[in-house]
Every structure is written in structure tokens, then in C-alpha cells.
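Risk register update: the risk of archive-format incompatibility is retired. Evidence:
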Amino acid sequence: MQKIHSTPSLQREYDQLARRVSRLGLISQGSVQDRTHRQRGGAGYQWTRKVAAKTVTVALSQEQFSKMRQAVANYRQLRRLLKRMEQISRSIIFQTAPHTARRKRLSPKVLGIM
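Archived output:
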């Protein structure tokens, strides 16, 4: 059984997450690869992402690779933070807004707060 948090504690957690989002820095979708140690040559550093269901790959300089690696890591962190912020938002909404009449309670899984 999941512990129900109070609205003020949820709001505090949400505010902390929002501050973390604001400090993330540059973001980018995709993934980066260091292929400088390959035997047959080719692009040393690569950034890959999906565009319209197609994979797009871009060769990068070493400096671009370093910055893009951090941007990709920031993007992944952003996604995790946003997922938690969504859960908290739904918890606050369902705790504070009037409910419609139901025969049985909605589970945390149905509400998307797990």
C-alpha cells in the first residue's frame, strides 16, 4: 500500500523538483558515442537521435561530444524529474479538487501516482 502524503509536503517536493529543473542547463534528445578507439576509422564522435521514425546520426568534434554528452544526460534527468512532477501534480489535484461520485475508489495505479 502506498503512503498518502499531505498536500503541503507534496507541494514542497514539487517546488524542489522545479528548482532542480531550472538548474539543469542545456538539454538534447538522443545518444552520443565515442568511437575513437575503432580499428577501421570512421566518425570518432557521434550523436544519434530519431527524427520522424528515422535514425539521424551526426559526426561531432571532441568539444561538441563533451557538451552533447552532458546535454543528453540533462535531458534524461529532465524526463525523470518531469515524470515525478506529473505524479505529484495528479496527487495534489485528486486530494484537493472535489471528486465525482464513484462506487469504488480509484487505485494509485489508475491515477498514475505510483
